[in-house]
From TrEMBL:
CDD domains per the UniProt record, alphabetical: CYP24A1-like
InterPro entries: CYP11_CYP27_families, Cyt_P450, Cyt_P450_CS, Cyt_P450_E_grp-I, Cyt_P450_sf
PROSITE patterns from the UniProt entry: CYTOCHROME_P450 (PS00086)
Binding locations of heme: C394
Cofactor: heme
Keyword rRNA-binding among UniProt keywords: no
Stated name of the protein: Uncharacterized protein
Keywords in alphabetical order: Heme, Iron, Metal-binding, Monooxygenase, Oxidoreductase
Entry superkingdom: Eukaryota
Keyword field contains NAD: no
Similarity field: Belongs to the cytochrome P450 family.
MF annotations from Gene Ontology: heme binding; iron ion binding; monooxygenase activity; oxidoreductase activity, acting on paired donors, with incorporation or reduction of molecular oxygen
Amino acid sequence: MTERRKQKYGPIYKEKMGNFTIIVVSDADDAQKVLRAEGKYPNRSPIVPLIEYRKKRNLPMGVMLSKDEEWKKFRTVMDKKMMRPHEVSCYADRINDVGDDLLQRLKRCRRDDGIIPDIEKEVTKYAAESIATVLFEKRLGMFNEPIDPKVEDFYESITKLLLATNELTAVPPFIFKYIFTKNWKKLVKWSDKAFQFADDIVEEKRKGLEKKIASADDITRSGDRIDFLSYVIATGKLNRSEANVAMIELLFAGMDTATSTILWTLYNLGKNPQVQDKLRNEVRSVMKDCREPDANLLEKMPYLRSCVRETLRLQPIVFALPRITDRDLVLSGYKVPAQSFVLIGSYIMGRDESVFTNPQQYMPERWLRGSDRQGYQSESRFQYLPFGFGPRMCLGKRVAEMEIQSLMAKLILDYEIKTMNPTENTPVNRLLMAPKDKMQIALHDLV
């Protein structure tokens, strides 16, 4: 719909959704103005169903839903460990262990024709297991056979929670809570299950830590290998309920970000064998006899990073970046007053033919440096914003990048990837951008 709107109205237009007015922009200069004008506490549109659930259960709003000083308190605690590359690189061995378990699982469940029957489920479990090792230094047991029923329920609750939230996003609370209540009841049910599972993990870890922590200063300075929950507890800046919500939000966010990007990268590589061959040659030349890619090795793989970046151009994690403007702006010649709800159209901007040559083509070379770069005509950093920008940038960015890159490096060394979908699989907006059709990915052993 937004692509048609842009063709009809240009790079800025206004939509009415009930009582809300939304301004959609798809020009890099306008995106820069909106994001550069963010105040001390950047504000984005609330996810109303999730806010209503938190109120119902008397839970803190956390970094995802809070505003102003409350948001700053959460974000300050989280940034130090989650947004610094050096901090995240220390978790490479844990993530590699989870990747090895996923590869073994894929071998066991692969059909004779190479297709993985439910690859979305397997990749989601990998993402959940990986982020849990970073947050709690704990394995959830997603790949255990048989899997613990509680772990299976947690996986199901996450997927159904997202679906229920998506159904309610554009519906006023008084309608979904008191008139058409079916999806609201589902959201409450699956949220309760997910929060209880994650809360049990947090409390188990907390009890062990409370016996060991003699001084907050000791543990927060004790080295890079401390897990994230231990660090948050030791700072003393969040109370028990706030720390629990913070961990749960990071667990959910880390799962969604990595899962979507891994699936679409597999899909794109499976449709572009020449790209896949080029990537395999790069990984082989860097890895040599090594099987466990750490941060130093991944840094030497620019084409791998470019493949992931090109995936995020074509199939971004979210359809648009929402912001509420802090002051009056002029966007594409129009006056936009303060407190306007603006959507920065990431999906549309990634397919702008004036910026990207053959925008529908999967071309990782767009993201290489120097003379190897081709197919990308913009120098603006605001043309491409896969993880957002500024203080509201995605908290799971660093961990997700390591999860995605390390897994792709392992897979490309062992398998030829083929996309078996009979028709083009397109992204659709379901709170996050999701495949319209079930992914059909085949993995064939390399000869």
